[in-house]
Amino acid sequence: MLSDHFFEQLKAQWDLQLPFVAYKKPDTSTVKGWLQKDDALHCSRDFTESGFVFAPFDSQRESFLIPFENTALLTHNFVASDSAEYAIVVTPMNTDQREFHVNLVQKGIAAIKQDQFKKVVLSRRETVETTHADPIPIFERLLNTYPTAFVYCWYHPKVGLWLGATPETLVKIRGNRLNTMALAGTQPFKGETDVIWKDKEREEQQIVTDFIVAQLRNSMGDATSNLKMEVSSQHTVRAGNLLHLKTDIALQLAPGTKALKPILEALHPTPAVCGFPKDKAKDFIIANEGYPREFYAGFLGELNLKETKTRNTNRRNVENNAYGVSKVVSNLYVNLRCMQLKDSKVNLYVGGGITKDSDPVSEWEETVHKSQIIKRVIF
Ligand SMILES: C=C(O[C@@H]1C=C(C(=O)O)C=C[C@H]1O)C(=O)O
Questions:
Q1: Is the distance from CB of 55 to CB of 299 less than 8 angstroms?
Q2: Ligand 1: which of 242, 273, 295 to mutate, judged by most atoms within 8 Å of the beta carbon?
Q3: How many helices and strands, by DSSP H and E, does the chain display?
Q4: Which atom of ligand 1 is nearest to the CA of 351?
Q5: Where in the numbering of this chain does the Chorismate-utilising enzyme C-terminal domain appear (predicted)?
């Protein structure tokens, strides 16, 4: 498949209204395209399938799958264009939205002070009108703008079209190795990554780390102690015009651990996008945000793909060369900094973590900053 035709082929698939996903993982130059040959809607029953999964925030709802089998796979070597600098777009503020969000955050803080939960992530959906809601050029602009993000464009005629550039990994599994991250705390990037974080942001991020570590231990049947986990210190990472606090977490799974479902149930949704404790925060979100999150703050990515690597190129081990080492690999990301295209309308989804010390107006401003990340590739 000629890579020059990559974007034309995506466009042809979109024109035919057939399902597809195109994506680029962080820090690689390879963009992959999966084109489904018919418009069947496949669901993932238990995350044992092999394919590209698209899962909602609310795990009670259906997760969709583009199966690996019977799908045309394309690859493209993406070279960012130097001239690609898209201006930050500042659209007029909607005062009703502002008031609703500030009230929502105040309600969240009141619930925290009444000990209903310790942290809740509150979000909003913003709708913008555009005359050029054409997904493929928007996808190309996302690729140009966010080289360190997981950038994607996902479509199914029975579900809709979603695009995004997320900084957050939910979980990566390669053979017996599991990697994840705790990402929370936000401040604008002003040319410097060596910045000061307030205690409030450090605590908010620590809630996410503690949750992930405890949930992984419990789901591995090791509530007490000796699972060897590598937990980094908190450090600053850049995501477009924002900075976040991040902790990397890694562990070696017990040999033979195959099922992803208990791991996903343990982690998703983490307090980075839902809150803590999970169920109480989730109930509050569903009852109060006033719109359905659908796939925002859900997860997506490669599920149970087989990766085969040739064992050894050393001449002495030439007999081993015939055997590839095969591993099952999943790379799943949290669906943040995302949008949904609907005719000439674009729905943007943005949120932030609330703790007892949050300031409602600053939280509104944080969502405004986050929405600019998305808007700059639309107009
Ligand atoms: C919820 C979002 O982002 C999450 C919330 C963050 C925060 O509260 O500071 C930071 C990164 C993400 O984990 C979003 O971008 O919509």
A1: yes
A2: 273
A3: 7, 19
A4: 16
A5: 101-370
Residue 2 pLDDT: 41
Greater model confidence, 369 or 63: 63
User: Which atom of ligand 1 lies nearest, measured to the CA of 353?
Assistant: 8
Pocket of ligand 1 (CB under 6 A): 121, 123, 168, 183-186, 244, 272-273, 336-337, 350-353, 370
What are the tens digits of pLDDT across the range 281-301? 999 999 999 999 999 999 999
Return the DSSP state at 188.
E
| Distance of CA 270 from the midpoint of ligand 1 (Å) | 11
pTM of the model: 0.94
Q: What residues contact 181, with CB distance under 8 A and at least 6 apart?
A: 168, 169, 246, 247, 248, 249
ipTM: 0.98
- Give tens-digit pLDDT for 73-104: 999 999 887 555 666 666 666 788 999 999 99
Residues 172/332, Cβ–Cβ less than 8 Å: yes
- Asked if residue 364 lies in contact with residue 378, where contact means CB atoms within 8 angstroms, the answer is no
The structural domains of the chain, ordered by start, are 3-375 (3.60.120.10)
Nearest CA, atom 2, ligand 1: 351
Distance 210 CA to ligand 1 centre (A): 17
Phi, psi of 108 (to 5 degrees): -60, -45
Mutate to test the pocket of ligand 1, among 189, 201, 244 (most ligand atoms within 8 A of CB): 244
8 Å CB contact between 177 and 248:
no
